[in-house]
Amino acid sequence: MPKKSQAPAFTPAIIPGTIPSPETFTDGLPLPKIIVFDLDYTLWPFWVDTHVTPPLKAKDNNTKSVDRIGESFTFYPDVPSILLSAKSTPPHPITLATASRTSAPDLATTLLKQLHLPPSLATTAPSSSSKVPAGKRAYDIFDYMQIFPGDKKTHFQRIQKASGVAFEEMLFFDDERRNRNVESLGVVFWEVPSGVSRAEVDRGVWEWRRRKGREAKET
Is 38 noted as a catalytic residue in this protein? Predict the structure, then answer.
């Protein structure tokens, strides 16, 4: 199990009244209709089916979970603000989904329910009418969830069927290069070998714009 690290403490710098967001969320240029995230080593720095020893218990106002042997688990530092800002982005919130091939889907779901988006983050973003309740469960912020072992093309086919959104309007963040095969469907894949951050989200969105020829404002 070479890919193991302690989950980082969540200590974002928060400007009162704002949610720190990727720049591409507010630059007025086109955005994907759905942004999809892997879980392990993408939203959090561990394999939930390998590193977590159940049961899990929420701690520190639901900003982390602790397993049976006392190990702590939480998101990469930028993740809560990315998720919140995606739902507070003018003019419309971004649809969010998960696509994970973990062999412990129930444990992953439990963790998403126990981890809350911290109340210290603002409930609204500037120039946005969309509101996100403080302390919202991470589980509740996702519109579509596909968590089961297998080829991720199946995950995306299910997301597409449920949402009605074309594959070409989807952007996928994942740490494993093998999952790039979803591009055969029309999805844009962006590899995040060190997990999701605001900078990685911006790079992924710009790649989606470049590949789809949508690098200018649209009327």
Answer: yes
